[in-house]
Each structure stands twice: as structure tokens, then as C-alpha cells.
Amino acid sequence: MNKDRLKSLLLVILILNSVILTISIWFNEKLWPSGYNFFVTLKNNPVLSVVSKIVPDWLGGEKKIESSFQDIYTPRLLVVKSGSHRTQFLSMDSQFQSLYPEITSALKNLYIPSNMHSSSACEKAEWINALKGKSIYMDFGLPVSTRLYGHFLTGKEGELSSIPAFSKIIISLQSSNDSELVVFVNQNETDSYRKFTLSCNKAALSSMLDSLVMENSPSYKFAFELRLDAINKEDNSNVLRRVTPSSLVILPQQDIAVPNLYARPVLGEKNEATISEILKIFKYNTLAYRKLEDAESNVLYVENFSTLKFTSNNFLEYKAVDSESGLILKNTPDVSLSQQYEIISYATAFVGELWNTLYSGSPNMELRLSSPLIENASGKYTLTFDYYHNGIPIKLMDDSAITLQIENGRLVSYTQSLLTFEKQEGVIEANPVLWAIDEFYKIYSVESGENSDKLITINDVFLRYTHSNGGINANWSIKTDESKTYTIKNN
Amino acid sequence: MKKLISVFVLIAILCTFVSGFAAPQTLSAEYHGNSRGLIVITNPEYQKSNTLEKNYVISGYGNDGVELGFYKLSGGKYVKFSSSLIGASGLFMKQVALSNGKNSIMVVATDRYGNTQTERLEINLLNQRFLSTLKSVAANLMGL
Q1: 3-state secondary structure of A76
Q2: Closest CA–CA distance from residue B51 to any residue of chain A (Å)
Q3: Closest chain B CA to residue A443
Q4: Which of A145-149, A266-270, A345-349, A470-474 is least confident?
Q5: Looking at chain B, which residue has its C-alpha nearest residue A454?
Q6: Comparing C-alpha atoms, which of A259, A341, A231, A247 is closest to residue A90?
Q7: Is the separation of the CB atoms in A431 and A424 below 8 Å?
Q8: For residue A290, what are the CA distances in angstroms to A32, A312, A412?
Q9: Mutating which of B89, B107, B129 best tests the A interface, going by the most A Cβ atoms within 10 A?
Q10: Lowest-confidence region among A13-27, A238-252, A410-424, B16-30
Q11: Is A255's pLDDT higher than 60?
């Protein structure tokens, strides 16, 4: 090839290169200086949006939703009854994982009008009665938007009449009619209940329940079954009632032993490689950031629009310079339900990507959403997640394990505890639940300083790992009707 | 030596007082307490009840510090099978393994002053076959 041809070829390559780089700068929002938005309209142009789908990474295009984070829509536990036996499955139990797909398949019918035979308000007594027979009780542990849940179940918008959000659902399998399913939904934190009769073949769900509930399964009772929730009208005034559990407080009837755990930093020997992966997830350009170490031995990665910090006390902290500079999770031209569903899905997929990078070697660890799953037309979200081990939550010293703040589809801040919890030898034998309720009352009565005439209602009792400087213990947590949670230390 | 004997006698007397208040291992079928208002039994709701649950839970509430003795009627006497102490919350729950058919159970509550309250319960354990028979009869009747 002669010199002229070579020169021409080189020139063509250079021109093409500059055109491609220019397009990248024009349409990749991360490279825009603050306030520059001329090409926003252009990018949303139908023709160019097709181009952005073909070359997504170059043009900051659409991010795929990871399917692994459908978990945010699963309840924290199932309490099931078959025959005369009632037991509980936590989210990591194999029985839970077998049963839940059948449950979601049945619940889809809530959002299919042609399968809805009837829908009516009902009283608490009917809600409670549904649990006396064969049933599945689902406790999500936080408010869930019925519209978002419908989107999760059916892939499109759907409403559930008169109920904006729920936290508990009961599926009643008492009826002998196999082609009909009765579902009760409790409007979150109210005494408002709704009963739905659906056209649905429940034979598979019913027989799966029979196979999973064994006579020797651990036994649990709701407080209403023991009538500990009701005030006895014929009560002798000499017997002072101090504590009453609310109707759906679950009381285990046997001793509980849980694995003994220890905590260690999740960033171990494969430090640099993992950090490099994390930087990629946060879209840090390896040529553009600066690495610093501050006086407190925290390692900082700083780029134009944000800072990523690995603290010496095992935290990961990301902070954008301002709300318009944060990492784009999803372009948000509007705040329709679909967009909100996608924002939450993208946010949880982002968390999931980090989770997979950091916790792939921790099979018993689980991440669950702990903030309300509610639509927010303002475009601002604060999502929190907690760590779980084998279905039991872990309370960290500094509150939530992960906190994200999102504004208009951008990640503005992100904090994550970089600890992992693993089994060690032995088990922790939890004290009986009644002992915990007794201890709670001792603390409460001293704290409140009132005389013992006041009746306090317990809304929830559950086992939780507590991580503190003294190590990890499994303690009972008791939530009262005064919206306070007491941790009762195991002895 | 005399002092030693006096000490032993004193201890023996004290033990008698203590053991006198502790619920005995057996009680006669006619035994009744001398008080009301120490405990309230919430489950079962009535003195006579039927259940399908082999492991039945007797529950209720009472005054802090009340000792509970659980007895089953056997051979004309009530024989103690379990005991517990009511704590600060006042709640109690006791799981009882029932035999098929009628189970006569007595709960004896004793406070620190020696007052006792007795609650007699008759819990009939039905078997699943009986329930299936009932259900099929009901289904047949509905068919008619």
C-alpha cells in the first residue's frame, strides 16, 4: 500500500473516531457539565432512542432489570394451617420457596376482573375466622402498594378496590369448592378488611399445603387462638390485666434454637478486584477518578460528580455532589406507576448487583426491603434494606444495612454495611417467648413510671439477631402499640 | 449441740411451711381451692370443650408470682404433670398432650399467701376420622 493510501486510511479512522466520541459526549449524560441539557429532548427523539437501544452502553441507554430482586415483593413469613396443625415458614425455608410461587399464581387473579366473583368489606371477626380453618397467612412486615404489587404479579398496572396499601393477606382454603378461592386483605395499619372471592383452581395449592405441614412441624399459635387478645368481660377485678398481645401476634409453642453467628468484613483478600467491580457498578471511569486516604484511614474514590468511600469501620458510602449529578438508575420523564415500579426495580437491581459482587460467598445471607413499598409521585425515594440470616433479621448498630436515596431516577446517596454474617459452631437457645414478654413488661413498667393499671398491647414478637460491640446474639424483639420496639436480651 | 438441734428443727419447720404452700403431687378428685381472682383461663373458653389438637394449649392470665399446678385425673385422683410460675406480664401458656376422648384437667393457682384457686376443665379430643365422618355427612345433607 503506498503512502497516500495509508494517510487516507488513517484520516478516515481518525474522523470516524472523533464522530463516535462526539456522539458519546452528546448523548451520555454522565459526561455533560452541570446544567447542560440541550440534548435531553434530542435523546428522547424516537429515532435516536432506537439508536440508544442498539448501542446502550455508549449512549447511557436502558439498564436491564434483574429478575433476582422480585424478592422485595415476598412476605417475610408465612403462617399456614392444615388440619389441626399450624406452623410457620420463614423466607429462606425450602417450604416457603416451594409454596410462594403457587401463592403468587393464585393471587394474580385478584387483578383479573373476569376472575373476580365478588369483593366486599368485611369485619375483623371474619378476617380472624378465616385463619381458624385451612389457610395461609402472609405477613409482609411493611406497607406494600396494591398497585405496585399488582404490577409485580401481572406486569401491568392494576388496582385493588379501596385498598391503597396492605401488609397482610390471608388465603382461605376452607371451602370445599376447588374452583373458588377466598382472599382477605387488610388495609395497612387500619381495621379495614376486604374479602375477595376469586375464580381459581386451588387444588394444587391446597395439596401442596397438606404435604408441607407435618404433625411434627414446629407449632405456632396466634394470640386469638388462645384468646389472649380479648378482654374478658367477666374478668374478676382482682386479676389485673397488664399485657395483651394483639390477635395476630404469633406465639411459638416450643423452644427455638438458631445458628450461632459471627461477623467479619466482607471485603477480604480479594479486596482490589472486588473494589474494582464496585467502582464499575457505580460507573466510575478508571481513568477519571482519584484515590485518596483520609486521616481516619477511610479510602475515598473521588470523581467529578460524586465520592465513593470505603470506611475503616466497614461501610461503603456513595454521595453525589448534588441531586442532578447522581448515578442514573432510570430516565424519568414522568411519574406514572410504571415509571415508579421501574425506578424501584432498577434501584433494587442496582442493590442486587452490588449484593452479588459482595455476598456471592454467603449463601445463607439474605437481603430484604425494610422501607414501605409505596408509590411516591414526588420522585424522591428512601429505600432501606436489612440483612437476614436463614430468614431471621439482623439488627446492626447503625440501623439499616443499606440505605439508598433516589431523586428523579438518580442515585443521590448510598450507604451499605460491609459486614457478612456466617455460622459458627453451636446454636443460640432463645429463651421462651413468655419469658421475653415478662422481661419486656418489667422494663416497660419501670420506663413508663406509671402504676400497673395501664394495659399495654403487644403488636409483634419476633426473634432477631443483634450485632453490637459485644458480638452477636439472638434476642426477642417486642413491638408495642406505642410504636416502640424493645429488644429483650437473651440470658 | 442444743443449738445445732434447734437450728435443724427451725429449718424443718420452715420447710414445712414452704412445702405446705407448694402444690402437692396428687390431689383428691374433690379438691377445691379457697379463693377466686388469682387467674383467668382464656383457653379453653368453656369448662367443657372439644378439640382436634392432640397438643392442646391451656392459656390465660393471672397475678405476678402465682404458682400454677396442672393436674390430670387418673385413677380417681388428680396427678400433677406440670407446673409454672406466672411472670410480670401475667400471661401463661401450657401445652398439654391429650389422650383420645375425655381429658379431665385441673389447674391449681396458689399465691404467696397460700390462697388457692382451682379451675376444672374437660377437654374432649376428637379424632380426625370422626371429623371426616362429620364432613361427609354434612356434604351428603347439602347434596339432598
Answers
A1: coil
A2: 9
A3: B88
A4: A266-270
A5: B89
A6: A259
A7: no
A8: 19, 18, 20
A9: B89
A10: B16-30
A11: yes
- From B96, B30, B100, select the one nearest B69 (Cα to Cα): B96
Mean pLDDT of A484-488: 93
CA B19 to CA B17: how far, in whole Å? Answer: 6
The grid coordinates of residue A429 equal 437457645
Q: Considering CB atoms only, which of A84, A236, A445 is closest to B36? A: A236
Residue by residue, DSSP assigns A213-234 as: --TTSPPEEETTTTT-SSPPTT
pTM for this predicted structure: 0.81
Q: Which residue has the higher pLDDT, B16 or B68?
A: B68
Q: CB pairs below 8 Å between A and B: how many?
A: 87
For the segment A458-469, the average pLDDT, to the nearest whole number, is: 92
CB within 8 Å: B43 and A226: yes
Contact call for residues A386 and A400 (beta carbons, < 8 A): yes
Question: In angstroms, rounded to a whole number, what is the distance separating the alpha carbons of residues B82 and B2?
Answer: 41
CA distance A274 to B22: 65
Give B87's contacts in chain A (Cβ within 8 Å).
434-435, 437-438, 441
Find which of B43, B84, B91 to mutate to test the A interface (most A CBs within 10 Å of its CB).
B91
Question: Which chain B residue has the Cα nearest residue A223?
Answer: B59
Using a pLDDT cut of 70, give the percent of chain A over it: 85
Which three cell numbers, joined as nine digits, stand for A409? 431516577
Which residues in B lie closer than 8 A to residue A235 (C-beta atoms)?
40
Q: For residue range A290-311, what is the model confidence (pLDDT) as tens digits? A: 888 989 889 999 988 899 999 9
Residue-wise pLDDT for B21-33, tens only, equals 456 889 888 889 9
SS3 A121: strand
Q: Does A448 touch chain B (CB under 8 A)?
A: no
Q: Give the closest-approach CA distance of B128 to chain A in angstroms.
A: 8
A486–chain B Cβ distance below 8 A for any pair: no
At B73-115, the pLDDT tens digits run 999 999 999 999 999 999 999 999 999 999 999 999 999 999 9
